[in-house]
Design goal:
Length: 66
């Protein structure tokens, strides 16, 4: 009977969460609506979230420059 020697070693894998960044475009909106079947309600919620994020970023930039 043949035998095989196998060496097994372990490797640590580190994971983490990070924010996904992207640029919002009209094409992305159209694609989202077309592929998801959602209507303008989802688009409106995304636009509100993007505006809020931009406002927060602007305020942080202003505070950092003081």
């Amino acid at each position: 009977m043949n035998s095989i020697n196998i060496n097994i070693k372990t490797v640590d894998i580190k994971t983490g969460l990070r924010k996904l960044n992207s640029k919002w475009t009209a094409e992305m909106s159209s694609d989202l609506i077309y592929h998801s079947g959602f209507g303008s309600d989802v688009e409106r919620q995304l636009i509100i979230a993007i505006r809020k994020e931009k406002r927060v970023k602007t305020i942080k930039n202003l505070l950092n420059n003081i």
